[in-house]
Amino acid sequence: MPAYLVQVSYAAPALSTLIANPQNRAEAVRKVVKNLGGKTIGTWLSFGEYDTVTIIEMPDSVTAAAFALAIAAGGSLKAVKTTPLLSPEEGLAAVEKAGTCGYKPIGTK
Hints:
By secondary structure, this protein is of the alpha+beta class. It has one domain: 2-Layer Sandwich (Alpha-Beta Plaits), CATH 3.30.70.920. Helix content is 41%, strand content 28%. The chain has 4 helices and 4 strands, in the order E-H-H-E-E-H-E-H. It has helices at 12-20, 25-35, 61-73, 88-99, and strands at residues 3-10, 39-45, 52-57, 77-85. The protein has a 4-stranded antiparallel β-sheet. Strand 2 (39-45) and strand 3 (52-57) form a beta hairpin. The model has no long low-confidence stretch (mean pLDDT 96).
């Protein structure tokens, strides 16, 4: 199954609620991912621009997009960033394909 990196930032009201009533949101996310036919690989809290980082596997990009839309629409997040992840083999195949596609940079013939 394709893998995705999901990074989220909580909105201030959601952070206030979590501080007042601590809860494990990773479990809530795991259930939603499972309901969509996917699997959660892991969830971590993070510092900086994003508050949590989760790696999920989903059946396809449409399902991953549905997940991102659902969590963004809930109102608890100020940002959601979903990044498709390639395996090393897929990355190598992409590099090989890029080398044969015929692209020419601007200013070259």
